[in-house]
Every structure is written in C-alpha cells, then in structure tokens.
Amino acid sequence: MRSAQIKDINIPVNTLAKRMKVNVPTIHSKVDSVCFDLTKNTVFIFVDKLESRIPDELVRALENFLEVKIVFAEKQNSIDLDALRKRLNGSFPYVSDAVIENNKVILKVSGEFGKDRLKTKMKNVRSILNDMLGTDVEVELDVQQQEIEQHVETRKTDNNEETAQNTVHSYTTPSKLPNKSGKVEVQGYVFEMKLRQGKRNTLLMYITDKIDSLLCMAFDKVANKLAAKISEGDRVLVSGNLTYDDSGEPILSVRQARKIKLTE
To answer: Which of 43-57, 72-86, 148-162, 176-190 has the lowest mean pLDDT?
Structure first.
C-alpha cells in the first residue's frame, strides 16, 4: 500500500471542526495522526479515542475540501491477541505478539518455521487484520530469537542432603519450540488431560506457558504412570520426541515427565 503519514498532530477534533466552519457538539477527542492511502484516495484520521460518532457534517466538509474519502478511526498501538487468536485459528500458535507501528502491523513469530507457515497464509492474515482495524495495513513478520532456559535439578543424597546434580537440563517452553523435529524437554502447566483406554491406552496431555500450548501424547505403561501421578494444574517437565504433523502443528511423544515445584 502506497501511503503518506503525518504523526503527532495533537489537535482537538472541535478545533478542526471550527476551522472547517462546522458547528458540532463537544467531542472529547484529539487528532493524533493522518494517513493518506494513495491507492484508495482515502485519508484516515486517527484520533486518541472515539467516545461518539464523528458528525457527518464534519466528514462531508473535509471530503469536499480535500476531494478525498475521509475515514475517522481510533488510534491503536497494539492488537487484541485474544480476538486475533480466534480469527487466525491454527496459525496463531506461531504469533507471540502483534503491535502497530506507522500504519504497519508487526507480527512477532516464534522461529523461522512459524514465519514460513504464516507466509503461506498472508492473504488471509492481511484480510483479518484489515477487518479488525477497519483499514488496509501492511503486515511484517518479525522472528523472535528462541531462548533456552537453564534448569539445575536437585536431588537428595543418602545423607538426606539436597545437592545440585552435575547434569544441567536445558529446556524450552511451548511458545519457544525448535523449528525441527527431535528430542526436547518442555516445561509448562497442564491444563487438560484425557486418558483413552482400549487395546492401547493413550494419554493426551495439553501443557501451556500462557502464551502457547503443546499436545503431549503418551502410550500404554507411560500413559498409565503419568495419569496416576500428574493432574491438571501441575507444572511439569516433559521429555520426548517432538514432531510436526502435516498441518505443521507440533506434537510431543512423551518418554517421561515429572512434576516440578514452583521454586525450581
């Protein structure tokens, strides 16, 4: 989208109306910025807040004076992530944050895999964001560096003394998974568990870091063992083999898991 923008205007809407010689009721809003979309011949006037509808008389006066379409909209610096989550569905797990800068939406994604996955759906993503914001916006994908946290496990010795083991466990979380399949340790809170019993018992355990979630699957003896010692609400450290299904969703095949204390 070709556009030109003027920022930090800070003019009350009533002052603008007065200069246009239009009588309007008191409006407790200020013009923050103006963006001219050349492709649509439209001027977007962003105000700090929209407590009431901008009078049609002012909109018509501006359109006649500038000879372009006028759209008033409330300034936004961030996106409602809950609303975006519902609209993006399966693509959302890769989005950790969304911000607006200079009429551009920056989606912060976890890893190159997430970026590539969103690229295949950019037309739909852009359409959703345009609908949410009421205007056409550019969309940029910003890959966030994955941080691996370090966790030193402590165990009790024969002397009943708690000592740090020499082994340091590097673990990640559901929102910071590696882009490729392989062995991982993932920490999170259990928010749902389902034990399916049959010829082969299967445990479906969903964990989250309050940003993203991950499906962990265990079978037979491992499933029965975990179902007996882990409950919803527990904080756990799960190890196993991470894979991605045909739709790109991650699944962790559990080798072992244990509850961890909040102080660890």
So the answer is: 148-162
Q: Percent of the chain having pLDDT more than 90? A: 29
Given a contact cutoff of 8 angstroms between Cβ atoms, the answer to whether 48 and 29 are in contact is: yes
Q: Where does the chain have alpha helices with state H? A: 13-19, 56-66, 81-88, 111-119, 122-133, 220-229
Tokens representing residue 126 in the block: 């852009």
pLDDT band at 101 (very low <50, low <70, confident <90, very high): low
Return phi, psi of residue 249, to 5°: -85, 135
When the pLDDT of each residue in the chain is averaged and rounded to a whole number, the result is 78
Burial of 98-120, coded b for 16+ CB within 10 Å and e otherwise, reads bebeebebbbbbbbebbbebbee
3-74 has which fold?
A: GMP Synthetase; Chain A, domain 3 (3.30.300)
Rounded-to-integer distance, Cα 208 and Cα 133, Å? 29
Q: What is the pLDDT of residues 45-57, one digit of tens each?
A: 888 877 677 889 9
Give, in degrees to the nearest 5, the angle at Cα 234 between 230 and 235. Answer: 115
CATH number for the 81-144 domain, one of 3.60.10.10, 3.10.450.50, 3.30.300.180, 3.40.640.10?
A: 3.30.300.180
Relative to beta strand 182-196, strand 162-171 is: unpaired
Buried b (16+ CB within 10 A) or exposed e, 53-81: ebbeebbebbeeeeeeebbbeebeeebee
Coil, strand, or helix at residue 263? coil
The Cα–Cα gap between 73 and 44 comes to 7
Q: Over range 114-126, report the average pLDDT.
A: 78
Intrachain domains 3-74 and 81-144 with the same fold? yes
**Phi and psi angles of residue 9, each rounded to the nearest 5 degrees, phi first:** -80, -50
